[in-house]
Design brief:
Elements: E1 4-17, E2 20-33, E3 37-41, H1 48-55, E4 64-73, E5 76-77, H2 83-89, E6 94-97, H3 101-104, H4 111-122, H5 127-140, H6 146-149, H7 159-171, E7 177-181, H8 189-206, E8 209-214, H9 217-223, E9 226-231, E10 234-240, H10 241-246, H11 251-258, H12 298-302, E11 308-309, E12 315-316, H13 322-330
Parallel strand pairs: 3-8, 3-9, 6-7, 7-8
Antiparallel strand pairs: 1-2, 1-4, 4-5, 9-10, 10-12, 11-12
Helix pairs in contact: 4-5, 5-7, 7-8
């Protein structure tokens, strides 16, 4: 499709440590279209953040390395481009909002210094024009008294304000793709809602494609068009937000939905998926969720399930749906 902004094919990102080779991202494939908001959800350690760092070519080398696969951005495989080319793409065509704004913003420089630098690197502007654009961007993300804030330091701002600054920096060069890694973590509910509203408005106004990485299904329900569920370095389910929240297919997705608290039940014991996430290792045989799955049978422990295509462009990595994939293929 011509409107595909990002397409990842069979991406493998491994870490080479003293204890062996660790496949943090193990063969994931996904696509993001223009103006679309795609969420990646899953437990900590499932490979969400490593996927985003792989797209930006920011995986620390060593110990990390993209072993194989393609990361196609507008027809260019980012896994093969030079660092010089990536510097032109980062912040300009693809921007990223990192999880913790206090560690992403330099405490030694004012907000204005950091915003102007990002604008001047990628856009042909004078320092005065860059300064005025920085103020406009701060106003766009809802920061009051932007003319004063631009001369302040990160420690003078609250967590929510710093996150807004990060969004302003990320959007200052009008990127085609915005990657947001847990953008509302550690923020209170009201500020979280405001940040999501800002991202939704920017998405609608500029048709910016957003890849949102989160473990919060409430955030997914609020902003995402499509959802990709990851587990132990693999995609286990894919579909529209409505379909996955209303009728999850994969046993892991079902467990995630089932563990959400229900407003109409006052006294309840929250459900939790039994067991723990397996440690990533090379050459693993069997479904990675089998040890925790209520529906597992012998084959699940002895064969690796493929990501099956189901009706309405849905996908699920589970042997339970093999017959349904055949029906879709024959339809």
């Amino acid at each position: 499709m011509s409107d595909v902004v990002l397409e990842i094919k069979e991406l493998h990102t491994h870490f080479f440590t003293d204890s062996g080779e660790i496949p943090a991202v193990d063969g994931i494939s996904l696509s993001v279209h223009k103006g679309e908001v795609v969420g990646i959800v899953g437990e900590s350690g499932c490979g969400k953040s490593v996927t985003s760092l792989s797209i930006m070519q920011l995986v620390p080398k060593p110990p990390g390395k993209i072993v194989s696969g393609e990361i196609n951005f507008k027809g260019t495989n980012l896994a093969k481009v030079t660092e010089k080319r990536m510097k032109k793409i980062r912040g300009n065509e693809i921007s990223m909002i990192f999880q913790e704004p206090m560690t992403s913003l330099n405490p030694l420089f004012t907000i204005g210094n950091q915003m102007r630098e990002a604008i001047l690197i990628h856009q042909k502007m004078s320092k005065k024009e860059a300064h005025l654009k920085a103020i406009d961007m701060l106003k766009l993300v809802g920061i009051p008294r932007a003319e004063a804030v631009i001369d302040e330091y990160p420690h003078q701002l609250s967590g929510g304000m710093r996150q807004r600054v990060m969004i302003a920096i990320a959007m200052s060069c009008d990127p085609e793709l915005l990657i947001a890694d847990e953008p509302t973590t550690a923020l209170d509910v009201t500020i979280q809602a405001q940040i999501l509203d800002i991202m939704k408005n920017l998405n609608k106004q500029n048709e910016t494609a957003i890849l949102l990485i989160t473990h919060d299904l409430g955030v997914v329900a609020e902003i995402c068009d499509r959802v990709i569920v990851m587990y132990a370095g693999q995609v286990v389910e894919e579909g529209t937000t409505r379909e996955i929240l209303k009728s999850p297919k994969h046993p892991y997705s079902k467990g995630l939905i089932r563990s959400l608290p229900k407003l109409h039940e006052r006294e309840q014991t929250l459900y939790s998926i039994p067991g723990t996430v397996p440690k990533p290792k090379m050459g693993r045989v069997g479904c990675r969720f089998a040890d925790r799955c209520e529906s597992a049978f012998d084959r699940c422990f002895n064969e690796n399930p493929a990501l099956l295509s189901l009706e309405n462009h849905r996908k699920s990595r589970c042997f339970l749906y093999e017959k349904k994939e055949e029906d879709v293929a024959n339809a």
